User: Fold these one by one.
Assistant:
Number 1:
Amino acid sequence: MDQATGLCFRHFELRNGHGAVPDPEVVADELLGSIENFSSADSINLLLSNLVKQLARKRIARPDAIALAYIGQLLLNSLPAMEKQFEQERYSASESQIFAALRRAHAARAAQCEPPAANSAAPLA
């Protein structure tokens, strides 16, 4: 702690211009890179590896890094549930297509089995 200002070492350096504060947009671009969404383990692991690099370079505050790492862990834990939901939706879509095909096949078979309509204009005796 600096005795004259009462600031900790980090804030003293920031105040005196020794420690340049990185532009948040630049840091965000470096963290996210080419990640478009977080629907795969690869994209989440890329974020986490970029986070480690930014923390090692002291371009991101430790509490922010901890929060982002925790969010990354939550995202990784949600992947199995997302995959299960995707599989269920794909199964449902396949099931609907199968039932529609069966209904069409049944209607076609029923049309083939119907006897031709007799001329009902003749009266019965």
Number 2:
Amino acid sequence: MTLVLEGLREALRLLFAGDVEVWGVLALSLAVSTVATLIALAVGIPAGVALALARFPGRSLLIAAVNAGMGLPPVVVGLFVSIVLWRSGPLGWLEILYTPSALVIAQAVIASPIVTGITLAAVQNVPAPFRLQLVALGASRAQTVWVVLREARLPMLAAIMAGFGAVISEIGASMMVGGNIKGQTRTLTTAMVLETGRGNFEAAIALAILLLALVFAVNWVLTSIQQRRHGLGALLVLGATGLAGPGVAHGAELTFSVAISMKEAVEELGRRFVQSRPDVTLRYNLGSSGELQKQIEAGAPIDLFISAAERQMDELQHKGLIVRETRRVFARNVLVAVKPADSTIDLAKPADLLHPRVGKIVIGNPKTVPVGQYSEESLRALGLWDRLQPKLVFAENVRQALDYVARGEVDAGFVYSTDAALRRDRVKEAFRPPEDTYRPVTYPVAVVKDGKHRALAEAFIGLLTGRDGLSVLTRLGFQPPPAGAR
């Protein structure tokens, strides 16, 4: 109960303190879902009317497909929209994957069968004798459809409510086609997932409360329209309000995809960077290097990539997706094993992880997370990988692994030394795997080839690799890059 009250307090603080990021997420969520719902109305109402009034071969099959589509899983929609919009997909040339436009498309696909199905049912519920009387009075087909729609307008507003409710609250498709990029495609639902993964439950509950308040407000307006029997004019006013969205930004906006372990350093240097460039806005897309790599491969609008491993940068370079001559290695880190600060388990060396008291060990997912790849290399070299398999828990990035240890959900975990230093009050270093058991943990940076602001991105690399960058990185515990690294 205390956690919920803290979440409510945090929600009120975020709203009334004018938190720019929260208001931006709220506005984007409303704008995207409103546009998607309007598109669904434009598609679904004519389709529903046609299925209700027309008779043609295959009609029953189409109705069955619409009814099935009303329960279409959002993740399935996300999958197929991603394939179509992927850089190598049929519509990849549009370059809109990981943009709000992709969110709108996916949500419109989700809402359209819902609007179609409810419209079909509403029109079918208009008595057949009434429709026949209209024809007998000489009404044209268009006039008949219009009058029938007016008769069915109240239940059809339920279609709007259902369509909007389905898209504003979905998560699967938004994550897959939007990528949860801060300042660009982060919605209320994807932000909730992010904060929950980080262990920031108060922030997640606050976002949940804001989402519920938004859904209630929109449905209250629609219910008022329904009960007062207003026409569609009020609905169009609501649509225009939703389409207003966030204000138009001026100047250059750059998006940096940054390995999450480099978060604090890049954000601090970013603040210095924009001080002398007031017309520039920097947005940070934080995550595991493998996840960020896949987004760039799919065509995400990214200007600069900072990886926590050479592997991801190598693969992007091989595919011609970064500007090779801008690539630099600017920092190094080391792998450490940590345990909860109040743990009484004696962990002084890697072999101690085999002790029966050690139940769960968290590492990053080796498929996409560099810290997981380094951990696997080290444990394999030490002959422990196979023996520890039953104990391993996989995290989606290094900060999630750190949070698992800090919350005491696992007995030990592998992170970078700089991450462990951020939570000294909640975790303590147990031991450091021998550095000769895994590849050097190096951080490369490069300009993304399809970025819109190459000169500014290169200027940031200059800051990152220069004296100011070295000073910030050293203070945060990063080490200089290996000799000869470029």
Number 3:
Amino acid sequence: MATSHEQLSDFYKKQERREQAPRQPEHEQTPERVTVEQHDQPASDRLERVAPPPLPTPPASVAVLQKSQQLLEIETILEQDLADFYFKMDEDARQEFKVTGEQTAAKIEQLLGRSRVRARAIFKLIIAWLKIIPGVNKLFINQEAKIKTDKIMRLTSKPPQ
């Protein structure tokens, strides 16, 4: 009986030290319920501690609530003929490709808003974005960038509706 009492007091001392020690930020949340088991005690005497619920994490990129019609058209042009490549990528590459594509579309929209639109700048943005696709030929990237640049430049020649 004395040994189980000593083990129990050692357990409480260790628990107090852990609670008093400064906490390091954790990368992953722990389960909401943590059960501390004592091998010498029956199941009814086990201690149960409820951890606070994990805080909601903000999204990786804050999306604009309302996208302009021009931005939607630019994104549509950029994503044309790339579905096969997109779905062959792993999840991390897909996310990077998507976020970079949205940023590229926003930059292109800003360029189109200027009084003098430079096709070369749009072409370079599209090439930089397409280079994210793994294992794609440089000639294919140039060809797709040229086609997409031409389609985007046609947007500027459309009269406003």
